[in-house]
């Protein structure tokens, strides 16, 4: 009788046949660039983000453009108000670049965070900081000073860490601004003196200094404003504000050199007021 070898028990791990893995499937998920292209608005080429509405034929357009359109820009059919939930789910899985990517911002964000970031993005355009003028200009930080010199050429530019800001004819009635640029430490600062009049006809002055730069840069400096007269001196010391922040809130809260018209007359000479401006690096 022939001898048959014993069969290995199936629960003996040393004798079990090696497990066979199914071949891995290739990653078929499209890269983010390809997915983002699905959300390009055919009108403005910005991204279409939730809530996403489509026309009757499935074409998409961003909400900003949609408000100004009478028909679908792709098929010319009625826009309707059909919500595309599937595309919203896809959008929420994609990272979108900040709208200021061309200006230097390298962040990519999910749709829910994109708008909030862009409202405070350091690369968003700067507004014209010239006070008292309805100027609609916007541009990069490097373009602010050239704009001021070209479009608001009445602004005096002085060099040095300590200068004298001369505000002429401070007895003018109503709201009025005096502006000077001061350049030092390789940067440019704007000195503003505002004369305000409230609803009771009471007047006061507010003086403040801004940096043509970011709030982070402004933290590296301090400034001092001084009114000097015969045996009198009025001084204000603070950190400059970035032109990004503006000055209206600070002036409203008297977070600046603030004084009334009687005080101004104590330091004025022939209707002109001199303010010594000193800027120091921390």
Q: Can you describe what's shown?
A:
The strands form five sheets. Strands 7, 9, 10, 11, 14 and 15 form a six-stranded mixed sheet that branches. Strands 8-16-12-13 form a four-stranded antiparallel sheet. A two-stranded antiparallel sheet has the order 1-2. Residues 1-28 have low confidence and may be disordered. The termini are far apart. With 282 residues, the protein is α+β, with helices and mostly antiparallel strands. The longest helix has 10 residues, at 111-120. It contains eight helices and 16 strands. The chain is elongated and about 80 Å long.
What's the gyration radius in Å?
A: 32 Å
What are the secondary-structure elements, in order, as H or E? HEHEHEEHEEHEEEEEHEEEHEHE
Question: Helix coverage percent of residues?
Answer: 10-25%
- Indicate the overall shape: elongated
Tally of helical segments: 8
C-alpha end-to-end distance? 102 Å
Low-confidence stretches: 1-28
**How many beta-strand segments?**
16
Mean pLDDT: 88
Secondary structure class reads alpha+beta
- Main sheet characteristics: 6 strands, mixed
Instruction: Indicate the proportion of strand residues.
Output: 25-35%
